[in-house]
Structures are given as C-alpha cells and as structure tokens.
Amino acid sequence: MSQPLRTSRRRAWTALTLPALLCVLAxxxxxxxxxxxxxxxxxxxESARESSPTPTGxxxxxxxxxxxxxxxxxxxxxxxWEIRTGAGGPGIKNTWxxxxxxxxxxxxxxxxxxxxxxxxxxxxxxxxxxxxxxTTSRNFLTGTFAARVRLSDRPTSGRDGDHVVQTFFPISPSxxxxxxxxxxxxxxPNGGWGSAGxxxxxxxxxxxxxxxxxHDTLERRLDGxxxxxxxxxxxxxxxxxxxEELFTSSGKYVPREQMDIHFSNWLIDLPFTGGPRTWDMKxxxxxxxxxxAVSLADVQKTVDGFHSTGTDYINTVPKP
Length: 320
Description:
By secondary structure, the protein is mainly beta. The protein has helices at residues 22-29, 42-50, 74-78, 296-308; strands at 13-14, 61-64, 81-84, 101-102, 115-121, 131-135, 143-151, 164-171, 182-188, 199-207, 212-218, 224-233, 236-241, 244-250, 260-267, 277-290, 313-315.
C-alpha cells in the first residue's frame, strides 16, 4: 500500500473559464459532455449539444460522459469541473499542468469521448507534468460513486518502469479538516514505495496528518477498461471493481463530511532518466447517486439510458 498521500498536499486550482458562467451552472444544477481542442467537427458538435435534452433528471444524481471539445470548453467549468494547475503534491510537487487534460474521441467510449489524463516525464523534475481534474461542488457524501476508467499497464510512449499512480477518489476539500474523509482507488502498474506491483489499493482515510487509514490491496494486472464503484451507506464503505467486491471499511473509516470527486494521474518519484515517456489514464463517464446503494447492473442501465437519449450531463445533487 502507498505511504501517506495527502499530508504534504496543498491544493491550488485554476478554473479555466470565467465566473460569468455561474449563471449557466445554476441552471444546470437545477436539473440534468485524442487531444483536446476544437477541430473541424466542432460546429456540428456544438449544434448537437444545443439541441440535446435539457439537463434535468432524477434527483440526487450526477452524470457526466465528458463530451467536451477541450480544456477551454466553457461547458467544462459550467458543469462544475476544474483542472489542477497549481503547486503541491502528491508525487512530483508543483508539476500539475492543464496540458495533461484533453477530451479526445475514443471508439471504446460509450459516450464517444473520454477525459484523458496524461502524465509525462523525462526523468527530471523540470521535464515532468502531472494531471488531475476535480469537481468544484463539495456535496458528495453517502451513496454510490461509479466511473468507467481505462487503466494503463504500459506507457503510451517511451520506456516502461515509472511508478505511476492512476486514481479515482472522493476527498475532503481540506487536508486539515477535523472530519477529514477520503476514499481511494489507486492503481500502481509498476508498484512503488517498495512494492513491485501491479496492484490496486483501496484506502479509506480517517485522518491525513498523522495518517490514519485502512486498506486492502488487489495484486492483479488491470490494463483496460473497468467500472470502479464506491458505495458508502449504513456505516460502511464498499469498494468494487466490475461488480467484484474488493474491500469494506467501517467504524471510523467512513466519510464524515461532504467531499469533491477527483481523477488523477501522477508519478511517485523519478526512478530513471533516459528519454521522454507518457502515461495515459482515461475516464469514459462518472456517476453518483446520493443516499442510495446502486448495483452495478442498475448503474449501467441508468448510464445506458442517458446515452440512448443523448444526455451528456446531469447534476441534481442537492447543494450543501
């Protein structure tokens, strides 16, 4: 399992669009999204988006299939996402870059596009970038968290061997909170902190500093697409992968305050120099249902329904 991840972490985030978009965000929250950047098909996509169903939907639901044109797409911030560009850890500190986030088309994506998080390095701090995206809404607590994620066992380019960490996790907005809460999926294809890997760590935190958490490790190679789920109901947290229950925590190791949702792709250390390499993690969609334990079959049925009606985004989760 990993060493403490968050004790040195101090978030600094940059939203990539203007506060004027808050009016759009308010409308969206009332009811029901390949390198990034516009291309020749962008006008057609924008027209389709404008004619898509109004973002209303079932109560207490977040869904996003990341149908955005790029990191500068105004809808990204309007839908409550921001890309990390600031300082701090974990991993190689102060190397977070918006360049690592893109929304390419992908034939394996159920919604057509993916959120791609790319970390890159040449083995030096100055030649390293890490990527992370999070929600700006801190209103996720009990219920079901789910995401379809593509994990990578090998670099997209360059030499293998980096200690990369590919993650999906809800977490408290502040590391120093008295009610600190964090629930982690962390995939380490090449291990790290003395382990050889591959491994998937599931970690439930009570405190970040000093670190107080419980965990379980699945020692399995997981290259490819997987549905990751965290269910927190009835005083326990259950982690499952593709419907297989992996780990349950209870007692004090359950969320105690509302959290935000993160996806992150970062490097523990820099074990070697000798040329550039890149690591990609992809997210097809994310889903959250407040205050309900939803089965994998029902999650997939709901997501399929959104896709069939052309619904890219829904957010009806109550504000804190």
